[in-house]
């Protein structure tokens, strides 16, 4: 295992890049800037022969030491392996030049799932659409796990959308690992971390399983899709809402408009014991039976069934309310989709445990044209007081061994 990489280099340069209009790989022309960040620039590009559109990440080499470059290569390798699945953003080509590495990706002009939920109001109350989209996400993650790739940063910001929100694509493998068991505590985005990932004082040999950790994150995404909210701010006993859920496993149904079916699914996903938590194959099987998810769904009632059963742990409802409740509805759009500049904002992360190999968040600053999301676009939504904070968390880097350059790399442009 490599040690935690140092902080990323500072952002420099202008979004009005000198590369605009240039051609890479002989046929891919960079036509506009989609975003810039600590490690490079994201361009809109087109195939000069066919007219096909791409998103191209230009990953800077300048300012990177050898370790950082190895981390960069590893992210590219894991994304390439994962992109064999239809619901993962396709990686078309990698072009390695003297100053930067160009990663040619599938272009998703509609942006990310976060924007689709919070800005455009998709999915909430649309059970059929939620099931279709969530199954795509589940199968993409299952394909990754089958290749021993664990994402570790599943959240709406890292899922791109197409076809008016009916098609989704998993993206951003900056935190992905091939370790089925890991000691990287506090790794990911805090709203989506499992309880076992948040151990702030682990013993020297402490570790947790990567697959159940991804399943937990998927449960939070399911709440985002069905209710437009987060279930809690943090899955820890310090969080009053999560504490109420621990007292009564049916607590979420008292404050969210979810059906009995959906509540049963959420109880299995949010099992604090990763060994008994629902598995991905089980979760996929449940959603293939088309459960009704929300009480206010626009689709007609279907006969109830019991896909899962978990008895309540307490008769105490543990209802939590008041100004600190994280169950306020998500706000109206706070920023336009096109040409917006966002000020730097540090991501929320947990204190580094004494024996942990925690991922280190690099400083971020972003300028985006379209809402094409990538590792370089993390705008921060300014929410009113006492509202669930859906901040776009910064990109972190995992600890992993350095790969060899895979065969799909082109070594010059």
Automatic annotation (TrEMBL):
- Could you tell me the Gene Ontology terms of the biological process aspect for this record? intracellular signal transduction
Q: Which InterPro entries match?
A: Kinase-like_dom_sf, Prot_kinase_dom, Protein_kinase_ATP_BS, Ser/Thr_kinase_AS
List the coiled-coil residues: none
Indicate yes or no for the key word RNA-binding. no
Presence of keyword Plastid:
no
Single GO cellular component annotation? cytoplasm
Q: Which Pfam families match?
A: Pkinase
Binding residue positions for ATP? 57
Cited CDD domains:
STKc_Pat1_like
- Keywords assigned by UniProt, alphabetized: ATP-binding, Kinase, Nucleotide-binding, Serine/threonine-protein kinase, Transferase
Q: What residues form the membrane-spanning segments?
A: none
Q: Which domain of life is it from?
A: Eukaryota
Gene3D superfamilies registered for this protein in UniProt:
Transferase(Phosphotransferase) domain 1
Recorded GO molecular functions are: ATP binding; protein serine/threonine kinase activity
Q: Looking at the record, which segments are called Disordered?
A: 295-323
Q: Where do the Protein kinase domain residues begin and end?
A: 28-293
For this protein, the record's SUPFAM superfamilies field holds: Protein kinase-like (PK-like)
| Family named by the database record | Belongs to the protein kinase superfamily.
Q: What is this protein called?
A: Protein kinase domain-containing protein
- What is the species listed in this Swiss-Prot or TrEMBL entry? Cryoendolithus antarcticus
């Amino acid at each position: 295992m490599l040690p935690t990489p140092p902080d990323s280099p500072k952002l420099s340069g202008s979004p009005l890049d000198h590369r605009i209009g240039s051609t890479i790989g002989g046929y891919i022309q960079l036509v506009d800037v989609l975003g810039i960040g600590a490690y490079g620039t994201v361009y809109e590009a087109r195939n000069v022969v066919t007219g096909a559109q791409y998103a191209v990440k230009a990953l800077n080499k300048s300012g990177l030491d050898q370790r950082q470059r190895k981390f960069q290569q590893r992210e590219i390798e894991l994304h390439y392996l994962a992109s064999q699945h239809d619901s993962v953003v396709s990686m078309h080509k990698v072009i390695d030049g003297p100053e930067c590495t160009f990663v040619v990706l599938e272009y998703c002009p509609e942006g990310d799932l976060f924007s689709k939920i919070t800005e455009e109001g998709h999915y909430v109350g649309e059970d059929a659409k939620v099931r279709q989209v969530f199954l795509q996400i589940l199968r993409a993650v299952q394909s990754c796990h089958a290749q021993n790739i664990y994402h570790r940063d599943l959240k709406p910001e890292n899922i791109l959308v197409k076809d008016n929100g009916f098609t989704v694509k998993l993206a951003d493998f900056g935190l992905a690992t091939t370790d089925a068991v890991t000691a990287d505590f506090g790794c990911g985005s805090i709203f989506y971390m499992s309880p076992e990932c948040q151990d702030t004082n682990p013993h020297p040999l402490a570790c947790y399983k990567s697959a159940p950790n991804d399943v937990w994150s998927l449960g939070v995404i399911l709440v985002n899709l069905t209710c437009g909210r987060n279930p809690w701010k943090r899955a820890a006993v310090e969080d009053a809402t999560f504490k109420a859920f621990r007292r009564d496993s049916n607590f979420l149904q008292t404050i969210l408009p979810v059906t009995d079916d959906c509540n049963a699914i959420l109880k299995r996903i949010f099992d604090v014991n990763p060994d008994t938590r629902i598995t991905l194959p089980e979760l996929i099987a449940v959603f293939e039976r088309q459960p009704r998810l929300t009480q206010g769904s626009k689709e007609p009632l279907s006969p109830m069934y019991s896909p899962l059963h978990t008895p309540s742990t307490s008769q105490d409802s543990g209802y939590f309310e008041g100004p600190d409740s994280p169950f306020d509805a998500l706000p109206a759009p706070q920023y336009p989709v096109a040409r917006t500049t966002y000020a730097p904002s540090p991501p929320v992360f947990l204190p580094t445990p004494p024996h942990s190999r925690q991922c280190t968040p690099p400083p971020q600053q972003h300028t985006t044209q379209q809402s094409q999301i990538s590792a370089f676009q993390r705008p921060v939504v300014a929410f009113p007081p006492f509202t669930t904070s859906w901040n776009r968390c910064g990109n972190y880097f995992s600890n992993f061994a350095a790969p060899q350059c895979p065969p799909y790399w082109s070594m010059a442009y």
